[in-house]
Amino acid sequence: MRIISGLFKGRRITAPKKLPVRPTTDMAKEGLFNILNNRYYFDDISVLDLFSGTGNISYEFASRGTEHITAVDAHYGCIKFINETADAFEMNINTIKSDVFKFLEKSKQKHTIIFADPPYDFDVEAFSKIPELVFKNELLEDEGLLIVEHSKHTDLSQLDHYSYSKSYGGNMFSFFE
């Protein structure tokens, strides 16, 4: 995987093979950040990266100037890798090792963008818990956005607060406001 834009543009990051991850493709990531670039100044926002895996999305935000990034993942190896990579690049990424659903239940901090990349094999009920908890606990700032990455075979359009979706190959981003 590589960082698409910003201070670390073009830098390649190679995650250990033993991590249980499926990084967002460069094509999908570029499309997503084109959308976000038209809506936000990256140095003025707070980002919560859920099911952060390799930290791919967090690194992209950090490279573009975002200073308030929190990455949450349940896997120790993922958190360790994000910490090591963030230290190597001198990125300010706060990591939390936690089950995402438990984290969302307890969290009180608001964010401008919440990005969630859960396992693609989640059923719609599991996917629905993400926006349900985010909006119930008021975790988005005004003008905030929840983005859930999923397979193009999963339809989240019936969920509360759904706004629209964008597809990039086999990847789909659903936006909730």
TrEMBL record:
A GO MF term: methyltransferase activity
Q: Which UniProt keywords apply?
A: Methyltransferase, Transferase
* Matching Pfam families: Cons_hypoth95
Question: What SUPFAM superfamilies has UniProt attached to this entry?
Answer: S-adenosyl-L-methionine-dependent methyltransferases
In this entry, which stretches build a coiled coil? none
Q: Kindly give the PROSITE patterns that the UniProt entry links to this protein.
A: N6_MTASE
Q: Which GO terms describe its biological process?
A: methylation
The signal peptide, as residue positions, is: none
Query: From what superkingdom does this record's organism come?
Result: Bacteria
Q: What is this protein called?
A: RsmD family RNA methyltransferase
> Which lineage is the organism of this entry classified under, starting from the top rank?
Bacteria, Pseudomonadati, Bacteroidota, Flavobacteriia, Flavobacteriales
